[in-house]
Write a structure and sequence with these properties.
The complex is a heterodimer of chains A (about 140) and B (about 400). With about 140 residues, chain A is mainly beta. Chain A has 2 domains: about 45 residues, no CATH class; about 80 residues, Beta Barrel (OB fold (Dihydrolipoamide Acetyltransferase, E2P)). Helices cover about 5% and strands about 40% of the residues of chain A. In chain A, the strands form 2 sheets. In chain A, strands 4-5-6-8-7 form a 5-stranded mixed beta barrel. With about 400 residues, chain B is α/β, with parallel strands linked by helices. Chain B folds into 2 domains: about 140 residues, 3-Layer(aba) Sandwich (Peroxisomal Thiolase, Chain A, domain 1), CATH 3.40.47.10; about 240 residues, Thiolase/Chalcone synthase (Peroxisomal Thiolase, Chain A, domain 1), CATH 3.40.47.10. Helices cover about 35% and strands about 20% of the residues of chain B. In chain B, helix 7 crosses helix 11. Chain B is globular and about 55 Å long. The chains are: A mainly beta (about 140), B alpha/beta (about 400). At the A-B interface, strand 4, strand 5, strand 6 and strand 8 of A face helix 5, helix 6 and strand 5 of B. The structure holds zinc ion. The site of zinc ion has 8 residues of chain A, from loops.
């Protein structure tokens, strides 16, 4: 069985600041990122939709110890964002000094841009990361 | 289904970078377990070996075949298990099922890892491979980052002031260090016994709000156990430790666990399977070796396992309720944070500790008095693989 939405297409859409998701015909649940089966009910009967890319921060951290090959990126802020339509996605937060990130960020509204992680020798190519910024 | 007993256990010292190969480390642990069982390698019908990252650590794949031959287990089946930090617990659980089924009567299960030998950069990169490579790693997620994000989420969910939570987490670290400091097999044996809340909070920040002392070390080491059917076990030892309950559950990336976080749903399902099978409840458990890869991970685990109410585990640690003499003795070995965390071996190391505790064979300062029922809890990835097992005295 073909998957309705593949990583490649999801990734290309992110480059246009668009998030593609899957809406389940059986239960109405929205699945992001792509999967073969609905995260809620397991049905494969889903339609590809565009999900709104704005949301609010659920949690975050400022990373001071990076993985091999990414040492020069630290310190950086990772955020988990709850999108307006429900799914959570992981990305980075720009536009603030990472060293000042505090729990006041939780609940703050964000909008999404993107930045390409070029990949490393293990990653089978590039992946786009959502790059969020605070909405005033 | 047959009853299955742990009849012998073995373990290397868990340590920082060292020079023994993974095959050699596993051999040390496995032969200790086989000798303790009054058996010979030729008696072993199959091997089940956890090893998460041998390919990166030594350039060695298919380690299980070499590890079997090294100890003189010739031409028997040997399987490798990869479930990140839960690899060895998966191996023990599968080994249990093969013996319970009656297919084998005597098997070895265990694990080995040289995570410390990789160094911080490669270890951090390869551990991050257990997060979602496509949808999480691009943002630079690391293992400490996962638990750092869970820490803020925990504080926000249960409305605990961050400073208070961090002090409670420091108490977790201090308890683990105290027990590990008198465990000769622990990486931090003889170390960190005088740790204070101030020192924990003031140490180097890895990922906010986690400091170095909130995190377990990278470790090298191996552990192994011999499992046997009841009829064989009775002939081999006066103190068989029966595995009375097992559970295992899987889950996708952290972001897909949104309905439950900071609870780890796979752990709740896995532990309920184990409790149900054993006919036990959390109140029946005398000691638990749980997956404290980070101080916050202890609180999250103890709640999902049913030992404390959600959001209350920190209070329990402060009151000593999670210590020896409290409601439940958690990690009298020192746990991952102090005993060490050679990821592919960790679960078997937990079983080693439970067996020794039930037999009353550990150092007096960390022996749980009259321990009859013990539990293990091992987490792989960010909740991707959970294994729980319950052990009881057979005498
Ligand atoms: Zn559905």
């Amino acid at each position: 069985m073909e998957q309705k939405l593949y990583f490649k297409d999801y990734n290309e859409a992110l480059k246009q600041n668009k998030i593609l998701g899957l809406k389940c015909r059986a239960c109405g649940g929205i699945t992001v990122p792509p999967k073969m089966a609905c995260r809620q009910c397991g049905s494969p009967d889903m339609d590809v939709i565009e999900v709104k890319s704005n949301g609010k921060i659920k949690t975050f951290t400022t990373v001071f110890v990076g993985a091999e090959g990414r040492e020069s990126e630290v310190p950086y802020v990772i955020v988990i964002v709850e999108l307006e339509e429900g799914p959570w996605i992981m990305g980075n937060l720009e536009g603030i000094d990472p060293k000042t990130a505090s729990m006041e960020l939780i609940g703050k509204k964000v909008k999404m841009g993107n930045k390409v992680f070029p990949g490393d020798k293990y990653s089978a190519g590039e992946s786009v990361r959502p790059l969020f910024s605070l909405v005033n | 289904m047959k009853k299955v007993a742990v009849v012998g256990v073995g373990e290397t010292k868990f340590s920082g970078p060292q020079t023994k190969t993974e095959v050699e480390l596993f051999g040390e642990a496995a032969t200790e377990a086989i000798e303790e069982s009054n058996l010979k390698p030729k008696d072993i019908k199959a091997l089940f070996i956890g090893n998460a990252l041998g390919d990166f650590e030594e350039g060695q794949g298919m380690l299980q075949a070499y590890a079997a031959e090294n100890i003189g287990c010739l031409y028997v089946p040997a399987n490798r298990y990869e479930g990140a930090c839960a690899s060895a617990s998966m191996a023990v659980r599968d080994a249990f099922m093969w013996v319970a089924s009656g297919y084998y009567d005597i098997v070895v299960a265990g694990g080995v890892e040289r995570a410390a030998t990789m160094g911080t950069g490669l270890a951090t990169r390869t551990f991050a491979m257990f997060s979602d490579a496509r949808y999480e790693y691009p943002a630079g997620v690391t293992f400490p980052a996962v638990f750092a994000m869970l820490t803020y989420l925990y504080a926000d969910t249960y409305k605990i002031p961050l400073q208070k939570l961090r002090e409670q987490m420091a108490k977790v670290t201090i308890q683990s260090y105290r027990h590990g400091s008198i465990n000769p097999r622990a990486q931090f044996f003889g170390k960190n016994a005088d740790m204070t809340v101030e020192k924990v909070l003031g140490s180097f920040v890895v990922c906010t709000p986690l400091t170095l002392h909130d995190c377990c070390p990278f470790s090298d080491g191996a552990a192994a156990v011999v499992l046997a059917s009841e009829e064989v076990a009775k002939k081999l030892t006066k103190k068989p430790v029966y595995i009375t309950g097992i559970g295992q559950a899987s889950c996708g990336p952290l972001i897909n666990q949104k309905e439950f976080l900071p609870r780890i749903r796979a752990r709740e399902i896995s532990s309920q399977q184990a409790y149900k099978m054993a006919g036990r409840t959390p109140k029946d458990i005398d000691l638990c070796e749980l997956h404290d890869c980070f101080s916050i991970a202890s609180l999250i685990a103890a709640e999902s396992l049913g030992f404390f109410d959600y959001g209350k585990a920190g209070d329990a640690w402060e009151k000593g309720e999670a210590d020896i003499g409290g409601k439940i003795a958690v990690n009298p070995s020192g746990g991952l944070k102090s005993k060490g965390h050679p990821i592919g071996a960790t679960g078997a190391g937990q079983v080693y500790e439970i067996a020794k505790q039930l037999r009353g064979e550990v150092e007096a300062g960390r022996q749980v008095p009259n321990a009859k029922t013990g539990m293990t809890d091992t987490l792989g990835g960010d909740g991707g693989t959970l294994v729980n097992m319950i052990f009881e005295r057979g005498w």
